[in-house]
Amino acid sequence: MQTITRDILLEKAASLLASGTVNRVLGWKKGEFIYDVTPAVFTNAEDMYRHFTFDCFCGANFSKYLIKETQKEGKVLVFLKPCDSYSFNQLLTEHRFDREKVYAVGIPCDGMMDASTVKALAPEGLTGAERNGDALILHTLYDGDVTVSYADHLPDRCKHCKSKKVVAYDEMLGENGEVTDAGRFDEVAALEAMTEDERFAFWQNELSRCIRCNACRDVCPACTCEKCVFDNPGSGVENKAISDRFEEKLFHVIRAFHVAGRCTDCGECSRVCPQNIPLHLLNRKFIYDIDRNYGDYMAGAEEGSRAPLVNYQIADPEAGEVVSGAGGDKV
Amino acid sequence: MQRIGVFVCWCGSNIAATVDVHAVAEAARHEPGVVFSTDYQYMCSQAGQNMIIEAVKEHHLTGLVICSCSPRMHEATFRKTAANAGINPYMVEIANIREQCSWVHKDMAAGTEKAIILAKAAIAKVHLNTALTPGESKVTKRALVIGGGIAGIQTALDIAEAGFPVDIVEKEPTIGGKMAQLDKTFPTLDCAACILTPKMVDAAQNENIRIISYAQVEEVGGFVGNFHVKIRKKARFVNEDVCTGCGLCTEKCPQKKVPNAFNLNMDNHRAIYIPFAQAVPKVAVIDPNYCTMLKTGKCGVCAKVCTAGAIDYKQQDQIIEEEYGAIVAATGYNPISVEKFDEFAYSQSKDVITSLEFERLTNAAGPTAGKLLRPSDGEHPHTIVFVQCVGSRCAANAAKGKEYCSKICCMYTAKHAMLVRDKYPDTDVYVFYIDVRTPGKNFDEFYRRAVEEYGVHYIKGMVGKITPENGKLKVQGSDLIADKQLHIDADLVVLAAAIEPDKSARPLATMLTASMDTNDFFTEAHPKLRPVESPTAGIFLSGTCQGPKDIPETVSQASAAAAKVIGLLSKNTLKGNPCVAQSDEWMCNGCSSCANVCPYGAITYENKEFRMPDRSTKVRRIAKVNPAVCQGCGACTVACPSGAMDLNGFKNNQIMAEVDAICK
Amino acid sequence: MQVNENNEFRPKIVAFCCNWCSYAGADLAGNNRLAYPADIKIIRVPCSCRVNPMFILRAFQRGADGVILCGCHPGDCHYTSGNYYTRRRMAMLFSMLNYLGIEKERTRVEWVSAAEGAKFAATMQDFAEKVKALGPNKRLEDLRCKQ
Amino acid sequence: MEQNKMASLNTQILRMSGVNPRKCMRCGKCSGTCPAYDEMEYHPHQFVHMVETGDIASLLQSESIYKCLSCFACVERCPRGVEPAKLIEAIRSLKTRPVGQNHITPDEIPALLDEDLPQQAIVSALRKYMK
């Protein structure tokens, strides 16, 4: 696979800006820390040469930004990793932005690092990190360079990558990959194999850490509502305070339900969670249940496909059968 | 803040016996917003309603909670009362403390406690009620009748008589249906053709009626008052406007081996044919499966002999699109296939026939010109056995029979038996029956005449087995009265096959969004009180598509359906159900989830420019609900992730208020 | 937690019933005087597909011990297809709740026609007994809502 | 006492056969179909009726229960799915089981066969005497 570097992207962006194909570029910008890369919009090549960055921390999914960006004048360039392209398609399916106002460049991806992983490997004095082939080299103040295997330290979403194929683009840089599916339901299945009490204890422990920062919602490319029900005083469920019990479950269950059948499993929710709650396990549960009961469905794989929860088959299984079939019968 | 009045009904002792109505009224009094609370023996009575009206005036009430029987019973009543009192009818909520409380709980304490909670839930909901006004839609003053049998003809005639245009869509080349195939009719024994064909002619000549024969409904859109229907008129390869019905072509066509469906394939007609002499429209039709010209391009005899020049081998199917205010289903019935009953040997012997085949055999216009002859050898049968309930009342095997009673068989079998004995007194006639069911005017008298005057042998019992042997049919059956097993050597056996709805009914019901029962009969809106309407507004039911019926019943239902249609078409506008979905354009994402689940296609999208708080403008795609089309199911409200879609009368916050009140 | 005079636990159960089939079925149970526990409180909705998962979670949050959703039998929906959507939605929601460790007996979908008064009463009896056997719902209740 | 015993026998028959005689609509098709009708004192439809009304004593006395060929034509053709032959079989088993020894085993069959014996009779004999 051709390695995509900062230079390649920069060159592509600069030429598209120069030719007038686009007037803005949605890209990544260096943050305070090495792992703290943030999305940014560049309007000229000069800024780009100064601030644009591309490394193994550029995991952010850009698709959601297109909703706002396409409201502006002119075309915007976006780089789509495989994950992002699914969200891109899903948003198009839901008529959330104008395809004509986007120039999409597909880029291959074989996994992006999470800030939390790196921070865990080098809790103190991390000054830099880089990828060198299969190795991840961390520069630290106290321990010098620490070299670890890149693949072994990928976050869950990349370890169990659903697809290395960019499904929507105007132009592809490098070679496109294939749809994979590296056991992404293993963790869900493991939870299903537990007893109800064990599962409750697991989630109680996870969700009780939630601080209701709404980062998961804000980053989610499926959570693009003009006004979220949890922010809407008229919805009856508006609630921003935190509590230790059911409140968080309500939020996370409803959020997962609202994106069920629309979630592209990009894993951004878990990436951004400051409390490291494995939120993707909620979404994957729905995807797993949908696949098992209504046939395999990948949101965003095709533009215009009908989401499973706004669809039905006469021969669908009953609710009780679905619950029991998903490990509910364990005694 | 609403000013709420609570009215607790005793319903005599129906509620008061298990619910302490005073306690309910008292508890309600202390709920926020409740300014008046009382109880009364019969709230739905005139006095009770007056009490409500007085209270509204005296206490300036803005919302009413009636704790009474089911809203399915009296919601409409109390909404009218509210309107009479000068408040919006949708400011009323009913707490069902009879069917769902006093009648199902025996303990007074538990019943009272639950009634109070139900009252509180209704109070919580009415706090959030808003005045609703039904939308209005125009009514297209034209009706569509699907099916041109006696039911469809009668319905169409009655609607046309009232001055409304009506189209009959008939899938066969002629109207007339099953009745046209019958010989005589019970209990008067007048000939079916003599009473049916004048009606067919009436229909053809009525200027308000258009007969679209050899056609089928292909697509139905719209809603009550405003249906849009696509009809496919099949090519008959004969120009209907030019053909004079002289019939010369049907005699000259060289292709003679086409099974005659009108005579139940007991004889043949040509590839170009007129189904029967009195067909309406009396126009020839070419069967493309047999016509040599259409199959090979070589022949053209009919075109040569047709002096009118009506033959058109290039004719194509034609699509007719029309708007209708009301649609009547009159799709009729068919006898079930009796081949599956091996014991009756229908497929083994030509001399085992169904009752409808028997009708054709005795009909003067039938394959034997009315002489009763055995199909196998054309001989006169001397012993005839009639078997009743073949496939009717058969609960054991749904693949074979029907659980219901087909209703008409007892009477037509008595008719057949009587006619045979009348014409051929030398014939022995046996009827095996389980029960003889003859409710109906002059029906039992008719059956008794068959026994007493005509000497038909009625045998209480069922035939177990029929074996064709040496040109005879060995019939083995039980005689339960004599406690004997009978063995009869019969020449002809007639099976009274169960009847089932026409196969076209199920796809039609899907197009009409009309419901059906498990037997594929159309469901009526209410089994007793609304028997000629489908639950889907604007769809009416005529004849056997709703359930087994004889001719007099079919005709009365046909006229009843016509009366309902006339009632609908005589209105200029219709008031809709105001409890429809509504989208908040500020919250709508335009994602199309709602339109995906809407069964009525009531939701469309538009791009709208919004002025944002920062004075910028933004164009967004938003959903619009057509209130005339929306039926208020609420599927869209749950599909909508942002909560932009809500349902009037059952708003999210109203239902949650009820939930909160119940779980308090 | 609610108890009766024998200090026995009395569950709070919310039953959502569609107007055309199940609510009518509940009325029929009443007409035929078929008793079921008073712990069941019915909320009328036009169609089972009107029931938003939020309502169900709200009920649990406010102290319900069980929630049952009743609609027309598949194929019989007054609105043609509403209950098919209900079936998928509730299958997903209830499976998720069970995944979070909520006892699966606390949630149920049941198809009850307008003619099935006896089935309605029997279903409610059975559901109430199962929920009662589980005891009070602790796992989904938001304690702050208690007064 | 006697009455109680009969009632419990009746329950036993219903349980063993799985038949609900109340489904019978008295059409008589079973008796109309029965090839052994003339051999019987009580006929298939009467079996059903007698079990329904609890008149077990007469049935147990009657030779009719051995006349049933177990051809199952009545079961096949009954429009209500009553299955009279299963009922008769249950009554027969009720009588033969306590006796114990008059069973037949597959090994004994060859000796009992003669050439004219129809295949169906062998099969039904097995059905009747194996239990």
The SS-based structural class of chain D is: mainly alpha
Which fold name fills CATH's third level, the topology of chain D? Answer: Fumarate Reductase Iron-sulfur Protein, Chain B, domain 2
Count of the domains of chain C: 1
Mean pLDDT of chain C: 89
CATH class term of chain D:
Mainly Alpha
SSE string of chain C, helix = H, strand = E? EHEHEHEH
Structural category of chain C: alpha/beta
Pair with the biggest interface: B-C, 46 and 45 residues
CATH architect. name of chain D: Orthogonal Bundle
How many separate domains make up the residues of chain D?
1
Count helical runs of chain C. 4
Q: Kindly report the CATH topology of chain C.
A: Rossmann fold
Could you give the order of strands across the largest sheet of chain C?
Answer: 2-1-3-4
What overall geometry of chain D do the principal axes of the alpha carbons give?
A: globular
User: What proportion of the residues of chain C is helical, as a percent range?
Assistant: 25-40%
Give the number of DSSP strands of chain C: 4
Q: Between the first and last Cα atoms of chain C, what is the distance in angstroms?
A: 12 Å
- The gyration radius over C-alpha positions of chain C equals 15 Å
What labels would you give this structure?
heterotetramer, A: 331 residues, alpha/beta, Nuclear Transport Factor 2, Chain: A, 3 domains, 5-stranded mixed sheet, 3-stranded antiparallel sheet, 8 strands, 13% strand, D: 131 residues, mainly alpha, Fumarate Reductase Iron-sulfur Protein, Chain B, domain 2, 9 helices
What does this 3D model show about the protein?
- The complex is a heterotetramer of chains A (331), B (664), C (147) and D (131).
- With 331 residues, chain A is α/β, with parallel strands linked by helices.
- Chain A has 13 helices and 8 strands.
- Chain A starts with 5 loop residues before the first helix and ends with a helix.
- The model of chain A has no long low-confidence stretch (mean pLDDT 88).
- In chain B, strands 10-7-6-18-29 form a 5-stranded parallel sheet. Chain B has a 5-stranded parallel sheet with strand order 20-27-21-22-23. Chain B has a 4-stranded parallel sheet with strand order 2-1-3-4, with helices on both faces.
- The mean pLDDT of chain B is 94.
- Chain B folds into 5 domains: 124 residues, Rossmann fold; 129 residues, FAD/NAD(P)-binding domain (3-Layer(bba) Sandwich); 58 residues, no CATH class; 166 residues, 3-Layer(bba) Sandwich (FAD/NAD(P)-binding domain); 68 residues, Alpha-Beta Plaits, CATH 3.30.70.3270.
- Chain B is 29% helix and 25% strand.
- Chain B is globular, with a radius of gyration of 32 Å.
- Chain D has a single domain, classed as Fumarate Reductase Iron-sulfur Protein, Chain B, domain 2.
- Chains in contact: A-B, A-C, B-C, B-D.
- At the B-C interface, helix 4, helix 5, helix 6, helix 18 and helix 19 of B face helix 1, strand 2, helix 2 and helix 3 of C.
